[in-house]
Amino acid sequence: LKGLWMTVAVSGLSLAAGTLIGFVWGIARAKRVRALALLLGAWVDVIRGTPFLVQVFIIFFLLPEFGIQLEAFPAAVIALTNLAACFICEIVAAGIAAVPAGQREAATSTGLNGFQQLRYIVLPQAMRVILPPLVGQYVLLIKDSSVVSAIGVVDVTRVGWLTVQRVPQGLLVFGLVALLYFVICYPLVQLSSVLEKRMSSGYNR
Fold it and tell me: What is the per-residue pLDDT across 129-175, written as a single tens digit (0 to 9) for each?
C-alpha cells in the first residue's frame, strides 16, 4: 500500500503538471507560428520517439554531470511530466485543428479577440475531441510510471521487486502488483469510454 501511494503521488503530480503544460504547448502549436511549431514539434518527436527509461536515466544520472543533482522522486516527476506534456500537446493541437475554420471566422466577425475566441468558441468545441483520448492517455502514463522504479522510487513496482527477493512467489507478488495498477486504471478506462460515447452522441445531435 505504501508503494501504491507512491505510484499515485508520482502519477498524480505528473499528470496535473503535464496536463497544464501540454495544453499550453498544444495551444501554442495550434497557433501555427512556424518557428514555435517547429521547435515544439521537434521536442515532442524526440520525447515520443525515445524510450521513457532512457529519459529517466538522462535526468537522474546525466544532469548531475552539469551540476543539477536531483533526488529520485523529483527526477521521476519531471520525467513523467515531460512525457505527459508531449503526448497531451499533440492531443490538444489535434482537437483545436478539428474545429472548423468557419467557427473562427464567425467569431472574428463578431469582434472577439484571439483569447476570447479560444475561450468561448474554440476550446469548448475542441474538448469534444480532446477529452476521450486525454483520459485514455492518462491510463498509459500511469502504467509508464512503473519505469521510475529503475532509479529507486519505491512505487508499487519497486516494492514488488523487493518483495520477490524475500518471498519466492513471483507470480503471486506481481499478480498483486498488476491488480493494484488495474484498480487505479480501470475507472479511467471506463471514464474514457463514457466520455467518448457522450461526446459522440452530443456531437451528432
Answer: 898 889 889 999 999 999 998 888 888 988 888 888 888 787 888 89
Q: Is residue 188 predicted with pLDDT exceeding 90?
A: no
Looking at residue 65, its pLDDT comes to: 87
Report the distance separating Cα 25 and Cα 91, nearest Å: 10
Residue where the block lists cell 502504467 = 143
- Which residue in 85, 116, 80, 94 sits closest to 23, CA to CA? 85
Residue carrying the nine cell digits 452522441: 201
The model's pTM: 0.87
Report long-range pairs for 109-116 (Cβ below 8 Å, ≥24 apart). Answer: none
Q: What is the mean pLDDT of the chain?
A: 88
- Gap between the Cα atoms of 121 and 71, Å rounded: 43
* Cell reading at 22: 501540454
Rank 58-62, 163-167, 192-196 by mean pLDDT and report only the highest.
58-62
User: Three-state SS string across the chain, please?
Assistant: CHHHHHHHHHHHHHHHHHHHHHHHHHHHHHCCCHHHHHHHHHHHHHHHCCCHHHHHHHHHHHHHHHCCCCCHHHHHHHHHHHHHHHHHHHHHHHHHHCCCHHHHHHHHHCCCCHHHHHHHHHHHHHHHHHHHHHHHHHHHHHHHHHHHHHHCCCCHHHHHHHHHHHCCCHHHHHHHHHHHHHHHHHHHHHHHHHHHHHHHHHHHC
